[in-house]
């Protein structure tokens, strides 16, 4: 049987499950070692996963032996999320960590007024929520699915036991957390000392590094909406629209829907230097 358990709805923050067989599903959860949740469960199409192969491609587990990976893979639970669905919310008790098998997730903070600041977008092979697994605190940020996502859930108890048996895993976690901290420092610096134009140009330059080269320049794709782009660079939708229009009027970019062509990346980089 394939199911989703303990999902948090973005609009209400209430744990929801769908019937038909709640009693049998709760029993399955208890056998899997998870606390039973109230509500309903949603059945999802069964897809084949290979937890061992996914874990082996994750940086912090790359040094484990085949038997050690098998031990962890047997305890990892595949969970699937639809675009926009919340994986967990900021402030919830930490039950464990996640490894991205396929798709992308966004890590973000929300204000009381509903504004969001995206901290990072993570793809296959990335891990999420390592820190609260160690310090015993709640999840420090929220995570949602960008597209159709399959995650491997590893409980806090199983991961801590692994770290006790293999201290090198804990050291790798420190490297991951350290890289995230450096990125957060960069976000704070941009929000504190740069304009929206500068942050937008910086975003486009970063995207250009993985964009597609064409005869007209380098083509990159913007997030699905200007609201999402605003969340990623720490501003509001209206300022994103205004600054995209200005960059296009100045010939620094050419837009076609959500596709942006950058004729001269160096010209955009000059924008960053001149703004400092």
Total helical elements: 10
Strand numbers in spatial order across the main sheet: 3-10-5-8
Shape designation: elongated
State the CATH superfamily name of the largest domain: Jelly Rolls
At the first level of CATH, what is the class of the largest domain? Mainly Beta
**C-alpha-based Rg, rounded:** 21 Å
Poorly predicted runs of 5 or more residues: 1-46
The proportion of residues forming helix, as a percent range, comes to 40-55%
CATH topology of the largest domain: Jelly Rolls
What is the count of structural domains? 2
Main sheet? 4 strands, antiparallel
Structure commentary:
With 276 residues, the protein is an alpha+beta fold. The chain folds into 2 domains: 47-191, Jelly Rolls (Sandwich), CATH 2.60.120; 194-275, Winged helix-like DNA-binding domain superfamily/Winged helix DNA-binding domain (Arc Repressor Mutant, subunit A, Orthogonal Bundle). 41% of the residues lie in helices and 22% in strands. The protein is built from 10 helices and 14 strands. The chain has helices at residues 22-32, 51-56, 66-73, 130-135, 156-165, 167-193, 196-208, 226-233, 237-249, 265-275; strands spanning 7-8, 15-16, 77-81, 86-88, 96-102, 105-110, 116-122, 127-128, 142-145, 149-155, 212-214, 217-221, 254-256, 259-262. The chain has a 4-stranded antiparallel β-sheet. A 4-stranded antiparallel β-sheet has the order 4-9-6-7. Strand 11 (212-214) and strand 12 form a beta hairpin. Helix 5 (156-165) packs across helix 6 (167-193). The N and C termini lie far apart (56 Å). Residues 1-46 have low confidence and may be disordered.
């Amino acid at each position: 049987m394939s199911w989703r358990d303990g999902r948090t709805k973005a609009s209400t923050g209430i744990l929801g499950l769908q019937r038909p067989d709640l009693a049998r599903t709760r029993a399955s959860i208890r056998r899997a070692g998870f606390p039973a949740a109230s509500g309903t469960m949603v059945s999802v199409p069964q897809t084949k996963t290979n937890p061992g192969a996914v874990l082996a491609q994750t940086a912090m587990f790359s040094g484990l032996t085949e038997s050690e990976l098998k031990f962890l893979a047997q305890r990892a639970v595949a969970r699937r999320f639809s675009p926009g669905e919340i994986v967990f919310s900021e402030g919830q008790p930490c039950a464990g960590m996640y490894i991205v098998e396929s798709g992308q997730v966004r890590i973000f903070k929300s204000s009381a007024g509903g504004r969001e600041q995206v901290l990072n977008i993570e793809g296959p092979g990335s891990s999420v929520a390592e820190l609260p697994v160690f310090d015993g605190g709640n999840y420090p940020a929220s995570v949602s699915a960008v597209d159709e996502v399959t995650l491997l859930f590893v409980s806090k108890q199983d991961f801590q036991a692994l770290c006790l048996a293999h201290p090198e895993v804990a050291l790798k976690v420190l490297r991951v957390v350290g890289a995230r901290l450096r990125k957060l420092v960069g976000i704070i610096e941009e929000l504190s000392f740069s304009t929206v134009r500068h942050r937008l140009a910086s975003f486009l330059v970063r995207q250009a590094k993985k964009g597609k080269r064409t005869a007209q320049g380098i083509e990159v794709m913007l997030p699905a909406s200007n609201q999402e782009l605003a969340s990623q660079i720490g501003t509001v939708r209206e300022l994103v629209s205004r600054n995209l229009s200005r960059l296009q009027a100045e010939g620094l970019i050419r837009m076609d829907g959500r596709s942006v062509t950058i004729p001269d990346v160096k010209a955009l980089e000059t924008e960053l230097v001149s703004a400092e």
